[in-house]
């Protein structure tokens, strides 16, 4: 699992790839949290388009970032989760704390 962090104005974008499990979630949390503290974004976008597997650690990852973004007065957007991961998110009720955006880009 890897995370690439990009900032654009007041938005922090975390591009996630690979598997999110209890082994990888800790380092992802640390990288994102450190950047949130430094940048103080108003929006955190978690781009799940490259995630191939996620267990309950991924739900915990989202919930913890939501709590941190609440502290800084921001919001969390989950972008492009694959359908199987989107189903897990919906079953867990993540939609109550984060917006799920499923816009798929089309290459011309």
Secondary structure blueprint with pairings:
Layout: E1 2-8, E2 11-20, H1 22-39, E3 43-54, H2 56-71, E4 75-79, H3 83-92, E5 99-101
Parallel strand pairs: 2-3, 3-4, 4-5
Antiparallel strand pairs: 1-2
Helix pairs in contact: 1-2
Kindly describe this structure:
The chain is of the alpha/beta class and 108 residues long. It has one domain (6-101): Transcription Regulator spoIIAA, CATH 3.30.750.24. The chain has 3 helices and 5 strands. It has helices at residues 22-39, 56-71, 83-92, and strands spanning 2-8, 11-20, 43-54, 75-79, 99-101. Helix 1 packs parallel to helix 2. It is globular. The N and C termini lie far apart (29 Å).
Outline:
The chain has helices at 22-39, 56-71, 83-92, and strands at residues 2-8, 11-20, 43-54, 75-79, 99-101. By secondary structure, it is an alpha/beta fold.
């Amino acid at each position: 699992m890897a995370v690439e962090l990009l900032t654009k104005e007041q938005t922090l974008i975390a591009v996630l790839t690979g598997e999110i499990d209890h082994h990888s979630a800790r380092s992802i949390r640390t990288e994102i949290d450190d950047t949130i503290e430094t940048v103080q974004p108003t929006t955190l976008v978690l781009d799940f388009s490259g995630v191939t597997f996620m267990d309950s650690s991924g739900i915990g990852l989202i919930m913890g970032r939501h709590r941190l973004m609440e502290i800084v007065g921001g919001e969390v957007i989950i972008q492009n989760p694959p359908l199987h991961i989107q189903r897990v998110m919906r079953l867990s009720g993540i939609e109550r704390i984060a917006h799920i955006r499923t816009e798929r880009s089309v290459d011309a």
